[in-house]
Amino acid sequence: MATKDAPRVLVIGGGSAGLLTAHALQMLGASTVEELQKTIESCQVDDHRAGEDETMPIYNCKTEELMIRLPIPYNIRLKRRKFIRHITQGLDVKVNILQIRHSSGLTPLQYSKKIKEVSSDGKKATAVFEDGTSETGDLLIGADGGRSVVRDYLVGSSQSALADTPIVSTFAIAQLPAEAVEKFRHFGNRMAIAFHPNGYFTWVGKHDAHESTTPPGEWKFMVAQTWRPEDPNYDPQTMQREKALADAKRRAKEFGPTLSEIWQSIPDNTTCWHSRLTDWKPDELWDNRNGTITLAGDSAHSMTFHRGQGLNNAIHDAASIARSVREYGFTPDAIKAYEAEMIPRGREAVNGSRANTIAIHDWDSLLDSPLFKMGLKAK
Ligand SMILES: Cc1cc2nc3c(=O)[nH]c(=O)nc-3n(C[C@H](O)[C@H](O)[C@H](O)COP(=O)(O)OP(=O)(O)OC[C@H]3O[C@@H](n4cnc5c(N)ncnc54)[C@H](O)[C@@H]3O)c2cc1C
């Protein structure tokens, strides 16, 4: 990696990890904690104001008895699109795929650039895009998500493959009828988790629900179920779209009355996603080509979502890269120090998330799971 004062950095991927890393490296806009809290809160799914004494209810999905109220102090629930739009601001980019930093700031680039190949000669890294164009920089940061092309290059495509977990999920973003919303407000209000003795997990949470502007009958909710199929060779491709929703509604008939009503009230034309949960953990230091290529966010550590640690770790990565660069400059030592901090942290988060995901789908191990013992804290 070049050590001159104005290196060119390519950040691949315009999700949270890429955009936050670009911000952190630019070291833009020193905000106070209060300013930051206000801005972040404005990107939420609802009008909630974060506070110290917040809790999340966890129910027995069959009896609807409250099992525990997990402390979740200063809980922030971000609406992804709003958050991404917000953190794109100030980067002076018209692109959500690639940002380039050089001495004059970030160069505006085109939308929808898709990286196809990466290479490095140990001094410069080059990204080749599907449209045949390419860009070269002193440092390339792969923040291109769970199926990262940059990771394929660093560790080889077979080592880079996502690992299956035994758990599958069904998700939908649904507009619920006003009566179901009213029931949910007494049950979880903002979000609720329930575990069924048969090994099902279900989540209902506000997704777009601004009381100040929208009547409850127009709010959107994210609903999810996860479970472990009995057939170890079960193929989620056999249960797509309307089949997935019908299957979730069938399972929800085993739930208590409120949760069952919420699920049954989802309009049948609601889009549903059904897939197997996967993850990828960084097992060891990779050859970062003399500090010219590294990873951040899900591309570096892709984890199951039940403990809500993915974005937290992506934010940690952005801060960690910026801290290393501040200490060592844009040098191979900075990337070495960043990876030495990030890789064990990412590995632990992926392992912990997987252990938790498996434990919570088994009624007997549920109460010993990290979620019940530690809540959503990282450790
Ligand atoms: C249901 C669910 C709930 C979650 N809940 C939480 C939670 O409560 N707390 C928490 O901390 N985390 C949570 N997470 C995890 C969190 O959302 C992710 O860890 C985080 O968004 C990862 O950000 P990222 O930028 O690394 O990846 P992504 O958001 O996937 O962004 C990757 C970017 O790279 C781009 N890209 C992909 N391929 C290419 C390519 N070939 N070329 C160029 N660009 C490319 C994509 O378009 C995208 O813009 C949850 C995840 C899910 C699925």
TrEMBL record:
- Oxidoreductase found in the keyword field: yes
Which cofactors does this protein require?
FAD
Q: Where are the transmembrane segments?
A: none
* GO MF terms, alphabetically ordered: FAD binding; monooxygenase activity
UniProt keyword annotations, A-Z? FAD, Flavoprotein, Monooxygenase, Oxidoreductase
Which branch of life, at top level?
Answer: Eukaryota
Cite the Pfam families for this sequence.
FAD_binding_3
* All copies of domain FAD-binding, residue ranges: 100-351
Provide the protein name: FAD-binding domain-containing protein
Species in which this protein is naturally found: Saxophila tyrrhenica
Lineage from the top down? Eukaryota, Fungi, Dikarya, Ascomycota, Pezizomycotina
